[in-house]
Design goal:
Layout (H helix, E strand, L loop, with lengths): L5 E5 L4 H12 L3 E6 L11 E5 L5 H8 L4 E4 L8 H11 L3 E5 L6 E3 L2 E2 H4 L7 H15 L5 E6 L3 E3 L8 E3 L12 E3 H13 L6 E6 L1
Parallel strand pairs: 1-2, 1-4, 2-3, 4-5, 5-8, 8-12, 9-11
Antiparallel strand pairs: 6-7, 10-12
Helix pairs in contact: 1-6, 2-3
């Protein structure tokens, strides 16, 4: 039987964060779900729900302290990256997993989606913010970070348990489609949490 872990999830009420929390709870872990607003989010067995704000890193650090690991599932352009990293560092928790962005993945050798010029204009600011945050993590020596970057189409769907993992490249199927459901993404992230294979690295997922 796997050891129960204490997992803090920042952005736990969002589309991805909710699925990660559900997957973690179903596997018997203890979850602290943190979000700016927690209206309608009910605590339950092994689940604590807290209202926290990245703009107050000292207070957020107090909520994160004592956990085995932290998961960040917040939109990259919605917060100050330095303040989030500060909160994580102040908490004393070393293990840090991040829901990444598809634009950081390579679509050709050495060329990311962001670099390719193929992204729609409305996606570019988000992809640039995701890349900037990845660069910050790459330069940090004190955190055991991991980024799991999803496929290009990242939506609600089925929990199939059937997907592919890659390295730094965008995963595309034989029909030219790059997709993954929130539900299957959560499986892969919890697998990485329970059996770390990508410490201080980022990797990809898709069908």
């Amino acid at each position: 039987m796997k050891t129960s872990l204490k997992i803090a999830i920042i952005g736990a009420t969002g589309n991805v964060g909710k699925r990660i929390a559900e997957e973690a709870l179903n596997r018997g872990h203890q979850v602290t779900g943190i979000a700016r607003t927690i209206d309608g989010a009910a605590a339950g067995k092994n689940l604590t729900v807290l209202a926290g704000d990245i703009n107050n890193p000292e207070a957020l650090a107090g909520m994160l302290k004592g956990h085995d690991l932290i998961v960040s599932s917040v939109k990259f352009h919605d917060y100050d990256h330095d303040k989030l990293i500060k909160a994580v560092r102040l908490s004393g928790v070393k293990r840090y997993l991040v829901v990444g962005g598809a634009g950081t993945l390579e679509v050709a050798p050495g060329v990311t989606g962001l670099d390719s010029g193929l992204l729609p204009d409305f996606v570019v600011p988000v992809a640039r913010a995701a890349q900037n945050y990845l660069n910050v993590l790459k330069s940090s020596e004190d955190l055991d970070w991991t980024v799991l970057a999803p496929a290009a189409e990242f939506n609600a769907g089925e929990r199939t348990g059937k997907f592919r993992l890659g390295g730094h490249e965008l995963i595309i199927d034989k029909n030219g489609k790059s997709a993954i459901s929130f539900e299957d993404y959560a499986i892969a992230l919890l697998d990485e949490i329970e059996t770390p294979r990508h410490l201080k690295d980022h990797f990809s997922i898709g069908y």
